[in-house]
């Protein structure tokens, strides 16, 4: 659930910036958010797949790793 919410929040931020910046919005401004959404989507897909095949502990580890990766990505690329 947390991973899906992270994906939704990241995509929402992209559209918020596009609305707020209007004509000043460029691909360079939106790219970090699209990459973050891609990380969240792939990680969510991996975790759900692991849950379906019965690897619950591994799915939890993937979820925790996703949160850490997204936080590190946000701090390094987007800024605090």
What does this structure look like?
By secondary structure, the chain is an all-alpha fold. It has helices spanning 2-21, 27-52, 56-78. Helix 1 packs antiparallel against helix 2 and helix 2 runs antiparallel to helix 3 (56-78). The two termini are 24 Å apart. The model has no long low-confidence stretch (mean pLDDT 86).
| SSE sequence, one letter per element | HHH
Shape: elongated
Helix/sheet category: mainly alpha
> Average pLDDT across residues?
86
Number of strands: 0
Radius of gyration: 14 Å
Instruction: Provide a count of the helices.
Output: 3
Terminal Cα span: 24 Å
Low-confidence regions: none
Quick description:
The protein is built from three helices and no strands. The protein has 80 residues and is mostly helical. Helix 1 (2-21) packs antiparallel against helix 2.
What characteristics describe this protein?
80 residues; mainly alpha; 86% helix
């Amino acid at each position: 659930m947390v991973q899906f919410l992270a994906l939704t929040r990241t995509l929402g931020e992209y559209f918020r910036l596009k609305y707020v910046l209007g004509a000043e919005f460029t691909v360079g401004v939106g790219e970090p958010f699209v990459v973050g959404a891609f990380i969240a989507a792939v990680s969510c897909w991996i975790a759900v797949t692991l849950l379906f095949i019965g690897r619950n502990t591994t799915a939890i580890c993937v979820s925790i790793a996703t949160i850490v990766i997204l936080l590190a990505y946000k701090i390094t690329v987007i800024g605090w």
